Fold these 4 entries.
Entry 1:
Amino acid sequence: MILHVDMDAFYASVEERDQPALRGKAVIVGGPTANRGVVSAANYEARKFGVHSAMPMATATRLCPQAVVLPVRMAHYAEASRKIREIFERFTPLVEPLSLDEAFLDVRGSQGLFGSSLDIGRRIKHEIRTELELVASVGVAPNKFLAKIASDLEKPDGLVVVDPERVTEFLDPLPVGRIWGVGKVSGHELERRGIHTIGQLRAWPRDELERTFGQAGEHYWKLAHGIDDRAVVPDRQAKSISNETTFAQDIRDPDALRAWTLSLCDQVAWRLRQSELKGRTVELKVRFHDFRTIARSTTLPAPTDVTQEVRDAALELLARLPGPLAPVRLLGVGVTNFSQSRQQRLPFEDETERQKQHRLDTTLDEIKERFGKAAVSRGANRKKKS
C-alpha cells in the first residue's frame, strides 16, 4: 500500500504553532513582490472567506479584512519539513517528497515491523502531532493516484483508506475533475457530453476517449479505472528533483508567477542539498488554463545545489516565455542532469560568487538544523546588473 501524507495548511499551521494566540483566527501567509503581495498559504479560517494561495494580497485582505497577515519564512518551513521527513523515514526508506508539505511513502515492506498500512498512517499522524504540534491528512491506497485523492477527502486531520477490492466504488461518485489532467477546458468538454463523475467517465469506451482527447484519453481511462503503476522514487534515486503547484484558480499576474517561481526554487535547492545532489539543468514547467503545457530548460556551466543559481536560471526561463501569458494553472521548477563530479570549476570571479552563495546556503541550513524557530530566510531575488 502507498501512503500520501499532506500537511494541513502547512505554512499557516507552523505560524499558529509558534504563536498560539493565532489559533481560531484567520491567518494568511504571503510575501511582497514588486510592491505587491501574493498569498502563499491561508489557514482554514481564512479559506472560509474565499482566500486561497496565489491570490493577490489586496484581494485576500478585502475578502477577509480581519485576517492576520504574516511574511513567508521559507527556511523555517523547510526545517519543519526536514523533521517531518525524519518521521517518515522511521517507517520506510521509500519516501518521495512532492514539496515541503507532502510526500508519498511506500510501506509495503514495513508492515511486518509496524503493522498494517492503516496502523502506519495512524502512527505517522500521531508522531507529527505530538512531536511537532502539526496536523497531517493521510490517504492509504494501492497506488499514488488513489492515495492522493484519499488524503484530500476529509481534510483537515483526515485518514482515508481505499480498499483494493473496492476501488471503483470509491472512485465512481467523485467529480470528474479529481482525475489528474482534467483541466477547465477538458472538464467542460466532458460535462458537455454528460460526464460529471468518474463513474460516468469509466463507462465510456477507451477508444472513444482516445478519439476525443488523444493521448490524454488513455490517461483518463486508466485513472478512471484506478490504474496507476508509478513507483515511489526517493530523491536519491530520482533522475530529477522538482516541485510544482497547481493553483486553486488560474493566475496570470507576473508578480505572482515570479513569487511562486522563487518559492519553488528555494524548495528544490533545499532538497538537492538534503540529498547531497547537484544538477546542471534547470527546468521550468508552465501549464495553462487550456492544459497546454510549456517546458523550458537551461544548462548551467557546472552542477549546482546553490539556491541563487537555481533562482537565476528559473527566472530567466520565466522571462523568456512569450507574452502576454494566458492564465496559468500549474507552475513547476526542477533540476536534473545530476553529476557525481565535484571537481568542475567556474571562472575565478564566478567561482568566488558561487562559494559565497554556497556558504550562505550552508549557513542557513545549519541555522535551521540547530534553531528550528529562528526566523531566517532569503529575501526576494537580487537584480542583475545591466
Entry 2:
Amino acid sequence: MNVSIVIPNYNGERLLKKNLPQVLEAAEFYQEKTGSKIEVIIVDDGSTDFSESVISNFLAERDLASQDKSQKLEIIFLQNEKNLGFASTVNRGVKESKGVIVVLLNTDVAPEENFLIPLIDHFKDPQVFAVGCMDKSVEGGKEILRGRGIGFWKRGFLIHSRGGVNKNNTLWVNGGSGAFKKNIWEKLGGLNTIYSPFYWEDIDLSYRALKSGYKIFFEPKSVVVHEHSIGAIKSKYSVSEIKKIAYRNQFIFSWINATDIDILFSQFVWLPYHLLKAISKVDLYLLSGFFRAFILFPEIIKSKFKARVLFIKKDSDVIASVNEAIF
C-alpha cells in the first residue's frame, strides 16, 4: 500500500536533526521491501526557531547526495503562516497526502527501521481505521512501554490510562505515532480542531471511529522511541496551562461523545459535585477547564450532532471491546 508520513513540527529544529534521518531510513526500507510508493510531508506550524533552515538545508544536501533520482523519496515541506495547533497542522498534512495510509509521527519520535511493515499489514482488512505503534517512551531516564490505551466512564467523564502491551485491542491510537486509513479519516472529518492547541484530539478521533463501527489496533512489533519530555508542548506551555487545557478537553470530549442514557444522566448529576469539590479544594485547573469548555458549548453541540450521524455503537459496547482480550 502507498503510504504518506506526516510530521507536524513546531520549533523542533534539534529534534528534526536527530530524528528525521531515521524516519527517512525507515521510509526507504519500506519502499525497498514492498515496492510501494511513500512520501514524507513535513508541516511547520509557524515555528520561530531555525526549523525552516534545518529542513531546507537537509533537503538540499539530500538532493546533492542522491544518485538515483527515480528511487528518491518525495519529501514535501509545507508551512503554516501562523501557529494553528496540532489538529489543524496534522489535518493539513493529511489533506495534502497521496497515500492510502497516512502515518503520523511527531518530531520527538524516532522509528525503528522496519516499523512500517507490521503496522501497514493490518490494513488488509478494509474496516481497519487506525493502528498504533509500540512507544518506547523515555521518561525521567527510564524506558516505559506505551501505545495501548484503555478506559472507562466514571461520574460523567471518560477516564483513560495506559494499557498493558500484551494485547492488540486499544481505545485509541496515538496521533504522534500511528497509522490511519485516509478515506475513513476523511469520512470521520479528521481531527477536531475544537481541542486546539493539543490533547484529546486523537482519543476523540479513535473513539468516534469505534462508535462508527471501524476497528483500531495496537501493534507491538511496530516500535518507535518517543522522548516525551523534550517535545514542543512542554517547551512552549507551563505545567499549569497544560493542566487547564487537559481538563477543558476532557469536558469537551465527554460532552461530544457520550450518547448512552446512563452516562448522560451521570454527567448531569455529577457536574455540580465536580465543581463544588473543585471550589472547596481551590482546584483552579478544573474550574478553569470547565469554564473554557462551557464557553465553547455551542460549538460542542454542533460537533456532537455531526459525530452522532455516523455512530452505530453504544459507549458501553466500545468500552467492553477494549476490555476483551483479542490475542
Entry 3:
Amino acid sequence: MLRYTGKRIVTGILSLFVLATATFFLIHFMPGSPFQSGAVSQQVVDALEKEYGLSEPLISQYFSYMGNLLRGDLGISYTEPGTGVAEIIGRTWPLTASVGIAALLTAVIAGTGLGILRAVTKHRAVKSVISAGEMLAAGIPGFAAAFLLLYVFSMKLKVLPVSGLLTPAHYVLPTVALALYPAAVICRLTGNSLETELRKEYVVFARMKGLSRSRTVITHALKNAYLPVLRYLGPAMAYLLTGSFAVESIFNIPGLGREFVNSITNRDYTLILGLTVFMGAVVILANLLTDLLCAWLDPRTRRAVSGET
C-alpha cells in the first residue's frame, strides 16, 4: 500500500508541475499586455511591465515564478495591486467549496438512493421513471438547468432567491443545478453494478441462509457494487469543489469561477496561474484520495497499478 501511495503522490506532483508549466507559457504567448488599455500610454505600459518583471526574458520569468511557487508564493494580482493571489483564493474558495460540498452530498445521497431503488424494485414503471429521469438529468447542461431552475422557482413561483449566498435558501438552486449530472451518473453506476452483484452466488447464498433482502443488499452487495461509484467520486468531487464557472456566473456567486473568468478577461497572468495551480491541486488531491480509498477497499486495484502479487 505504501508503494502504491508513493507512486500516486509522485504522479500527482509531476502532473501539477506540467500543468503550471503549460499554463505559464500559454498565457505569456497571448498577444498584448495585461496593462494595455485605451487610456494608457505605451510609456506607462513599459514602466508597469518593468515593475512586474514582464520585460525580462520569458525563461527568466518562468524560473522566477517556479521558484516563488515552490516557496508557496503565488504572486500579486495585476488588477488588484497590493493584493496577493493567495488572498484572493482565500476570499473566494470558501464560497465555491460550500456550494460544491452541498452539491456533492446531494448527488451522492440522491444518486445512491435512486440507484438502489432502481436495482431492487420489481415494478417496471418505477424502473422506467428513474431511468428516464437519469437520462434527462445527465443530458441537460448545468447552465441550462441553472437557467430553468432560476426561471421557475425565482421568477415565476418566487419561492427562492435569485442570486448570492446570503442565506441557506440561496444555496438551493445552485446546489441542485450542480448536483444533477453527478447524481445521474451515480444513479446509473449504482443501479447497474448492484443489479450485477445481486445475481452473483454469494448474494443467493446469503438469501438462502435466511438474511433479509434489505440486509443482503446493504451489508453485502452494495459494498462491492459501490466501487465504480467511488472511482467516479474523485473527478466529481474535483469538479464540484472547484466550481462551475457558468453556474457561479448565473447565480452571481463571487467564487473561484467568477474570479477565473475575470482574470482571463483582464489578462491577469499571476491570478490565472494561481487559480489554475490551486484548482489543479484540488483535482489531483481529490483523485489521489479516491484512488487510495479504492485501493484500500479493493486490493486488485493496487496490484494492477503497482504490480504487487
Entry 4:
Amino acid sequence: MAEVLEEYVGRLAPSPTGALHLGNVRTFMIAWLRARSLGGRILLRMEDLDHPRDKPGAADGAIDDLRWLGFDWDGSCVQSERRSHYRAALEKLGGLVYPCVCSRRDVEAAQSAPHDGDQLRYPGTCRGRFASWDEALACKSAANAGQGSLSAQIPCWRFRVEPGTVVEFDDVFAGRFSQDVFASLGDFPLARDRDGAGYTLACTVDDVLSGVTEVVRGDDLLAATPAQILVARALGAKPPRYCHVPLVVGRDGRRLAKRHGDTRISALRAAGATPEEILGALAFSCGWAERGERVSLAGLVPRFDLSSIPRSPYVIDLM
C-alpha cells in the first residue's frame, strides 16, 4: 500500500496586546510560506486571553495589517470564545493539576539557585493544599484584599511534574532540545483562570483540536515547549512538531520595542510603505530576496527555503 502522507497544518497566532510589528510579520511570513510551500493549510488563531494587556482594536488592526500584506488563511478562531474546550481539558487532566496561590515574589524567594529570564522553578508549595479552586480563590482574596492586580486576586492552575521528567524533541529549525522539566520548572503554571483559559493550556488544546501538525514561532518560546508537550501527552494527544526561528531584535540585542523606532505595520503603511517593500526587506533578511527588492508574499512561495534563514537574530534599528 502507498504511504499516506500527513497533511501539513500550520497556524498564525497574533495577540491583541499591541500593534503588529516587523518582528511579528517576519515570523508569520516564515510560518505562512512554510505551509504554502508544502501545499498545506494555515489557520489563524487570535490569542486574546491576556485581558489586562489586550488593547482595544488591536485584534482587528492585526487582521487588517495581515490581509494588507497578502496573508490569507484556511480557518480561524478566537481563544476567548473557546473556554468550554479549556474547561473540558482541565477536567480531563484531573489530579495532574491543582490551584496555587503563590505570587511571583513567593516563587522567587523559594529559588535554590539563580535563574535567568522569566522561567522560575516552582517547588510545589501548594500541592495538596486546597480541595478546590474556590477554596484557593478565597484564600488568595483574603490575603490580598485591596490589591488591584489580577495576579494578586486570582490563583493559577499548576501542572504536577514528577522528579526525573525530561522532555526531548527535535526542533525543525533549532535542532535537538532537551529539558529536565522537574529541575528547571517544577510544577509549571497552566492558566490564571478558573476555566483554564491561559496561555500554556489554551495553546496546547487549540493546537491539538485544530489538527496543527507543526508550530512555527519565535525561538523565545523554545524553552516553554516541553511544558506544552507534557500537557498534550497528558491529554492523550500527539504534540505537533515545532520549528523555532530567530527573532527580530534591536541593535541592543533585545526584542523589538518603542526604543528601537516605530516598527509597527500601521505606522509604515501611514508613511507610504508598500507591502512589497516590507516583505522584500524581511525576505532579504531570510536570504530569499536581493537588498531593496520588492516582492509579494505569493511570489516568495517558490523561493522559500528554511535552511537559508540565518541562525542568529535579525538586527534592525529604525532610530
